[in-house]
Structures are given as structure tokens and as C-alpha cells.
Amino acid sequence: MPPTELQALLHRYREGTCTPAEMRAVEAWYAAQPDGPAPALSADGREALRRALWQQLRPARRLSSWPPAAWQWLAAAAVAAGLGVGSRWLGAPAAGPKAPRAAAPAAARPWLVRQNATAGALAVRLPDGSRATLRPASQLRYRPGFAGGRRTVYLVGEAFFQVAHDAARPFQVYTADVVTRVLGTSFTVRAYPAQAETVVQVRTGQVRVSPLRPAAGGATAAAVPGPILLLPNQQAVYAPARQQLHRELVAQPVLLAPQPFAFDNRPVAEVLEALKTAYGVDIRYSPAAVAGCTVNLNLRRQASLFAKLDVLCQATGATYSQADAQITFHSTGCQAI
Predict the structure, then answer these.
(1) FecR protein domain spans which residues (predicted)?
(2) Beta strands in the chain (DSSP E)
């Protein structure tokens, strides 16, 4: 089977358009795999693993009329994609395998799938007490009871997560392109199949976002960006086609620590520090440039961080810029107001 046909098969499986025989055959292999991508293997290790996968796929292939070479392509692709569950094509099948008739090992238990086919949000309570809010046209998949002790879910679409803290078991969200790891926090992951970029936004706590290894024929491992750490009001944006991962502020940072926001002849530096505290945003400025500068401002009526900064800049003749989730306040001195 040519690689293009294999890619088409895996895409059909993810979209739920396989024939019944194709779907059963793929799931027979897929359900037997442990959670999470495999570590990098040597050439000998990949060959040994390919043979093991081929043995697992042999019973399944009887369900299809494909020649043996086709299933060898599938096994090889699974190895090249890092054992599948985090890969770009197998990352989100439309439905989990059917429940077995007899008790099965934890790794082979059927997946629980939560699909939001409504126009509103769908609340999902996870086995560890964490909660996910699925947006429309989104799907969440995980093992019953988080089998194997791993708090791992697989997402297609968009969801907001409120994660129960467990220092011993990090919570992991896999999409087709990235994995997000946390201990306990709240964040949003947006990864619809049709969108060019995957976005992870943090509301509270910290998360680590790592691109997944590309499938066979993609970029080299050296070209894949390293992980980045996100803090509240920050987001990671990953473009797999360009292998680019960057950090930035969310469009509308939320208020984390309310402040009075009323300044009567107060130093500009005090205003900037209050904004940093309120929104948890790194605002950089030159103390020498604002030394001796004071303002009379009431920023309570400005709803957003950027609206407050605009008013401060108008009052002082300053400007600001953004880069890598930081704001730089540019001042050449103060003007009378």
C-alpha cells in the first residue's frame, strides 16, 4: 500500500468514514496499545517492534480483503508515528472499540468517548474528579477509570479543563499535534482538524506544551520545537505545517488579583506594578525613564488590561509593545496632564 493510501485510511478512520471491516481491523491493533507515545527507538528496536505489531495485526487483517503488505504498511506507520495514540492520523478516532465480551487487560479496555453534537457546551466529569467542558463539534476520549494510573485524554476540537491537583500523576491532553501536561490548573485547548494552528490558553496554574513528533516523511526530530511553559493569561500557538511554536498573551487577559485602580498623584511605576499584579502579566519598563512621573487616573471603568494601558499611555505620552507574552512599556519621560 503506498503511503498516500495509508494516510487516507488513517484519515478516514479518524473521521469515522471507514468501512466496518477497516474500522474493526484498525481498532484491533489500536485498542491493544498503551497510552501515550513511545520513546525514540533504535533501528533494531523499531524492527523488533514492527514485527510485534505485525503479529497483533494478523488476526485483524482477516476482517479485510487487503493484502498482507497493506497491513505491514500500517504497522510501519504506527512505529514511525510514535505508536499511534498521539499521531496526527490516529490521534482521534471517531469511536472507541466495542466492549469485549470477557474481562480484558487495562491497556485493552475500550475507550470512553464523549462527543458534543449539540450547539452548546457539554460538561464531562473525568474519573479523577477533573472536569472538561466540550465545545460544539468536539470529542474527548480516555480509558475507563484512567486505567494504568495515567490521567490521559485525547481531544479533537476545543475543551476547557479544570484539573484536580495530583502531583504524582500529571494530567495530559493529547491532540493531533501537541501534548499539554499539568498537575492541577484550568486551561483551554483548541485543536479542530480544519484549523491550521493548535492553541492552548492558561487561565490558572501552569502548563507545559510540547509538539508531538511528526509522522514519517515529516520534519526531522531536530526541527521540532522544544516545550514551552505557560503561565496564567498566556497561550501557546503551534503551526505544525511550519513547525513553529510560540508563546503570547491571550487576546483578553482575565483579572486574577483585583486592585483599587484609582491613582491620585501616584508614580507611574506604581500603576505598572498594579497592572502586573492584577493580570499576572510581565510588564517591563525602565525605572529611570519613569522616575519622578506621577499620574491622576481612575482605571476602574476600563474593562481590559489593554484599555488601561491605553489610558496610561495617553496620560504619559508613552507606548507599549508585546513579544513572547511580555509587555514592554516605552517611555521617554512624562508630559503634564
Answers:
(1) 118-208
(2) 112-116, 122-125, 131-134, 138-142, 151-162, 171-174, 178-182, 186-191, 198-204, 207-211, 228-230, 234-239, 244-249, 262-267, 282-284, 294-298, 319-323, 326-330
Residue 276: give the domain boundaries: 262-330
pTM above 0.70, yes or no: no
Distance between CA atoms of residues 222 and 96, nearest Å: 33
164 and 75 assigned to the same domain: no
Residue 320, in any domain of the structure: yes
Q: pLDDT at position 3, please?
A: 44
User: Looking at the chain, how many residues does it have?
Assistant: 337
Total of domains in the chain: 3
Q: Is residue 23 one of the residues assigned to a domain?
A: yes
- 208 plus 274 within the same structural domain: no
Task: Name the band, by pLDDT with cuts 50, 70 and 90, for residue 333.
Answer: confident
Q: Which helix (H) or strand (E) holds 75?
A: helix 68-80
Q: Are 305 and 322 in contact (CB under 8 A)?
A: no
160 inside domain: yes
pLDDT over 70 (residue 153) = yes
Q: In 3D, which of 203, 86, 235 has the Cα closest to residue 133? A: 203
Q: Which long-range contacts (CB under 8 A, 24 or more apart) does 43-47 make?
A: 46/79
- What residues contact 86, with CB distance under 8 A and at least 6 apart? 36, 37, 154, 174, 179, 212
Same domain, 116 and 201: yes
Question: Who contacts 52 (Cβ-Cβ below 8 Å, separation ≥6)?
Answer: none
Ranges assigned E (strand) in 71-136: 112-116, 122-125, 131-134
